[in-house]
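Problem: given the chain below (69 residues), write out its structure.
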Amino acid sequence: MENKNTFGKNLRALRESAGIGQVKLALDLGVSKGIISLWENEKREPTMSYLIALAKYFDVSIDYLVGLE
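Solution.
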């Protein structure tokens, strides 16, 4: 069973629904805007520490972020 909700799509949807730009999210996480773009476009995957930080930032589970729920 393939899930169409990927990490990149979920991250972009969470960021946009919160009204946060890539630059703001990058500054808050301590990464470059380019990294956020790479994550959202599925060119790179975040490390576990960034997955945890993103889950806390958006108050969602890691499972939700990666499309498992």
